[in-house]
Write a structure and sequence with these properties.
By secondary structure, the chain is α+β, with helices and mostly antiparallel strands. About 40% of the residues lie in helices and about 15% in strands. It has helices at about 5-15, 40-55, 85-90, 110-125, and strands at about 15-20, 60-65, 75-80, 100. The chain has a four-stranded antiparallel β-sheet with strand order 2-3-1-4, with helices on both faces. Strand 2 (about 60-65) and strand 3 form a beta hairpin. Helix 1 (about 5-15) crosses helix 4. The chain is globular.
């Protein structure tokens, strides 16, 4: 890995934030809380965050989606600039039933994830360009 990728990795991991979309829960009176989550719905959530970033001219942000052991969906963002965290936090306020917090991965190492994605982008020649850093090979 080049020194540039190493410094970018440190910066992105330092700005790591997570949006948690809780799994369906049953209320004490046996009725279901009113949202049904599918992969498509979670991808729609992620795409709405991405559109908000694009609207602000921010394309240098890595993201990924995972599901934790309790069935909660986690949308992780690794923005290059610290100011982007506020954009994401404000976008999150438009969604019902989601939780916002500092980065918390359930099943992967954030530093390894970021380093791998940046290495892939570097091979494609996309680290220095203006193209968004989105990679669509996983949800």
């Amino acid at each position: 890995m080049t020194p540039n990728v190493l410094s970018l990795t440190s910066n992105l991991v330092a700005n790591f934030v997570t949006v948690v979309v809780p799994a369906r829960r049953w209320a004490w009176y046996r009725t279901e809380v009113s949202h049904h989550l599918t992969v498509d719905k979670i991808i729609e959530y992620r795409d709405r965050f991405r559109r908000e970033l694009s609207r602000h001219g921010e394309g240098r942000c890595l993201d990924c989606v995972e599901i934790d052991a309790l069935g909660n969906w986690r949308i992780h963002f690794f923005p290059l600039n610290e100011e982007v965290i506020l954009i994401l936090e404000n976008a999150e306020k438009k969604f019902l039933e989601v939780a916002w917090g500092m980065g918390e991965a359930a099943s992967f190492d954030p530093k390894e994830f970021v380093a791998s994605r940046l290495a892939h982008l570097e091979k494609q020649g996309r680290l220095r360009g203006r193209d968004p850093w989105r990679l669509e090979d996983s949800p």
